[in-house]
Structures are given as C-alpha cells and as structure tokens.
C-alpha cells in the first residue's frame, strides 16, 4: 500500500512539474539589457582623407522581446538605447574647401557623436524558460539620432572640422549579433554616410562606418 501511495505521489509530482514547466515555457521572455563595445572602420573614404587613431563606439540600452512562435525561440526585438561613437580621421580646410593660399598642416581630427538608438531585431535562439546559457543569432536594423557632438582638432587654432563638413543627424544600418551565453560577436554597417558633404562646397564626403566588436546581453 505504501509503494502504491509513493508511486501516485511521484507520478502526480511529475505531472505537476511538467504542466508548470509548460506554463512557464509559454510565458517567458528574453527581455534584455545590452552593452556593446566596437572598433570602427571608416569605409569609402575619398582620396585626401584617411582614418587616424583608434575609432571606437560604445552603447547600452534595453530590448523588449516579442516571441512569434509557440516554443518562443523565434522572435522580434524592439529596443531603445544610447550610443557614443568616436571617429579619428584627417581632414583639413584644403581637403574640403580648397583655396589658393591654403597650406594648413595636416594632422588629425576627432569627432564624438552622442546618439539615441533604436534597434529592431529578428531573433533565433536555443533558449527555454529553464535554459539560461544558449546560442543566439540576432539580425536586424538600427536607427540612430545624433543629439550632440563635440570635436577635438589638431590643426590651426580656430579651425573646427564641423565648420566645413555636414554631420548627418539621422543614421541607420544593418546589424548582426551571434554567440553563446553572454559572449556575442556584434557587427554594424552604416547604410548612409555619417557625413554628407562639405559646407559651401560640392566636395562629397560620404563616409560609412563598419563597427565590429562584442555585445553583452544581461537578464
């Protein structure tokens, strides 16, 4: 009799655990905080301009998870965050606004862009409600609005690169993040130029940025 009672007890515990797990499986979300750090490679640079120094970017924010299948291992992500991208490159007045007597010594320029980011992702993962270490592949699109900039210049006094080039206030590009657990490779490619063209001149400066590094997902 005791064996029968023990059997029913174990059986009912198993059924309850399974039903409870099923319930959780259909409720859990991969809402996450993210932090990324990337190296920035400037591409499509026109001849007189080259990248100098170590350009880099950092970002942090929150992504809301929106599962689209029953297992909840496929979903969409919608986020909001902050980014700071620091670009080092050489550009002088003669490069963007040539004059007959321009002999400005070419050194380097640094521009920091502070942005509000909105990432949108399509998400594939091997997670479950009880599995916190899993493989992921997130691909998507990120928009960013530049709300503040500052520059540090090493040329003649009074020369500000922002006086001779336009900075695009609205940037967008494609993203890819992949990895296991918290360690994930991250890449971003800007689809529009971070600069448009020189002020008062038709000289084109349509430079795109390629960012490569790590992104960490928390929670």
Structure description:
- The strands form 2 sheets. The protein has an 8-stranded antiparallel barrel. Strands 7-10 form a two-stranded antiparallel sheet.
- The chain has 2 domains: 1-28; 31-218, Beta Barrel (Porin), CATH 2.40.160.
- The longest helix is centred in the first third of the chain and has 24 residues, at 2-25.
- The two termini are 47 Å apart.
- It is 13% helix and 53% strand.
- It has helices spanning 2-25, 93-96, and strands at residues 32-43, 50-51, 56-67, 74-90, 109-125, 135-153, 165-167, 170-180, 183-190, 195-198, 208-218.
- It is mainly β and 219 residues long.
- Strand 8 (170-180) and strand 9 (183-190) form a beta hairpin.
Largest sheet: 8 strands, antiparallel, barrel
Question: Which geometry do the CA atoms define?
Answer: elongated
The CATH topology assignment of the largest domain is: Porin
CATH class descriptor name of the largest domain: Mainly Beta
The number of helical segments is 2
Question: What is the N-to-C order of secondary-structure elements (H for helix, E for strand)?
Answer: HEEEEHEEEEEEE
């Amino acid at each position: 009799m005791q064996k029968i009672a023990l059997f029913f007890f174990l059986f009912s515990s198993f059924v309850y655990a399974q039903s409870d797990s099923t319930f959780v499986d259909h409720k859990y979300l991969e809402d996450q905080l993210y932090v990324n750090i990337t190296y920035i490679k400037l591409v499509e640079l026109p001849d007189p301009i080259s990248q100098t120094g170590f350009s880099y970017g950092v970002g942090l924010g929150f992504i809301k998870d929106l599962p689209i299948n029953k297992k909840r291992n496929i979903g969409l992500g919608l986020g909001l965050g902050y980014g700071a991208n620091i670009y080092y490159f050489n550009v002088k007045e003669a490069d963007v606004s040539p004059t007959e007597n321009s002999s400005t010594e070419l050194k380097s320029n640094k521009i920091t862009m502070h942005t509000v980011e909105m990432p949108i992702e399509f998400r594939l993962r091997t997670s479950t409600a009880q599995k916190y270490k899993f493989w992921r592949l997130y691909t998507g699109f990120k928009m960013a609005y530049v709300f503040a900039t500052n520059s540090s210049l090493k040329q003649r006094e009074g020369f500000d690169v922002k006086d001779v080039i336009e900075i695009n206030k609205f940037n967008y590009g494609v993203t890819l993040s992949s990895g296991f657990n918290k360690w994930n490779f991250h890449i971003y490619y800007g689809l529009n130029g971070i600069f448009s063209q020189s002020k008062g001149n038709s000289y084109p400066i349509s430079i795109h940025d390629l960012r490569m590094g790590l992104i960490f997902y928390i929670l």
